[in-house]
Amino acid sequence: MKPPVTVQGYRSQRVRAEYGRFSPGGILWRRFRHGWLGAAWRFALLLGRLGTRILDLVLAASTLLVLAPLILPIAVLSRVSGHPVLAREPRVGRWGVIFELLEFDSTDGPGQLLGRLHLQHLAALWNVIRGDMSVVGPRACRPEELDLRQWAARKRSNVRPGMVSPWWLRQRANIDFGSELDVDLEYVDRQSVRGDLGIAVRALPAILYGSGSATWPYQVDVLGVPIRNLTMEEALAYILLGAESEAPRQLSFVNTDCVNKAQSDPAYAACLRACDVVLADGIGIRIAGKLLRQEIRQNVNGTDLFPLLCRRLQDRDAGLFLLGARPGVAELVRDWVERNYPGAKVKGLHHGYFGPEEQPAVIEEIRQSGAQILLVAFGSPRQDLWIAEHRGKLGAGIAMGVGGLFDFYSGRIPRAPQWLRELSLEWIYRLWQEPSRMWKRYLLGNLVFLARVMWSILRRRNPAVSAEQ
Ligand code: UDP
Fold first, then answer.
1. pLDDT score of 246
2. Ligand 1 pocket by C-beta < 6 Å: which residues?
């Protein structure tokens, strides 16, 4: 027997249609669709779309005009020397229409110069002018990547694909970005001219600091601190592997403040040199890499890594121990993990305000918990020195110092808004939050750090300078 059709359960299409047509909600909707309010709404939508198109045309045309003196001679030279100027690839456009994505051919001939300057993708600006693409929008997918029978893929195709995608931007800034489709759907829902302009502006530093060299140094020496040149993904893989390690490993995240401290604290400097892996935290270290001509691939800081790590731990046995911060804070972080990543296990926790007499008991608690990954949040350099001293007794495969991480995820200290993090300017927010404590670290410290890096470059170029010392 067929189940009864109920109005409340909206079991059948027919009932839903009837209910929609005659219910008060349905009547309101029809009024909206045919009334002046609906017309105003549609007009606003149209204006929004027009605004996006105007923004696209202005941005694309002005960039092409600025770069024309460079691009045109190369294109002419390629043509004259018989090399192809453009490469074309099929991509899925708005509403699933296939178009040809243009790229300057940088495989051979004069076009190689454009490749070296990472300008080959700029040919897509012509796609923008033609209306195939927008400056900002979901990535232009290959036809085989997108199954348009799925509603999510169709919804994603409601807007033009973009040269800069919000997902790419979040990925560059190492923000917990979820799947590409999630980010794209969120973008389609919220798309606006102002939002697009914001993304385009925020993408600029990401492009300028973007993937530069093809051969990355394995390790970059920043003022005596050996920074391992890993990406966020590689760092995660290293931690997960380390969790199972027999010989306990130590990992540190260093920012400009840590490098400054290591200059005047030999014990801390030695501890960082003895660490298994030291990772680059923040834009300052990346700028130092640029100045030293040893490009650092990504900003890999503990706070951004934490949610990605929890996600990976959801289907693994390895568990976390949270050591540090004020009493009650680690408990809130555990609640946060349980709420957001239900499968990830926090096997134990302890605050960071214990005296030397309690230390053996705390170490035993960590050992007994069976946690394979230990996060220590005492602030640097104390956390790193503490791990170095006790790492053989902790039972964890890997231990890392994470500074103020617990304060952020417990909600005790709010994190900078996403747009500031995308610009790698979280430090400005921290300065604004605690100016009396942070001015020395950021305003003075960053200047001192840069001066030290410049000085080390000068000494390297001119050994006479160091001989005078
Ligand atoms: N902390 C601690 N024990 C102490 C001193 C500090 O657990 O004896 C904690 C403090 O509550 C804070 C963290 O260490 O959660 C230091 O955060 P901060 O942002 O200063 O770390 P940094 O970024 O300097 O490494």
1. 86
2. 324-326, 352-353, 377-380, 403-404, 406-407
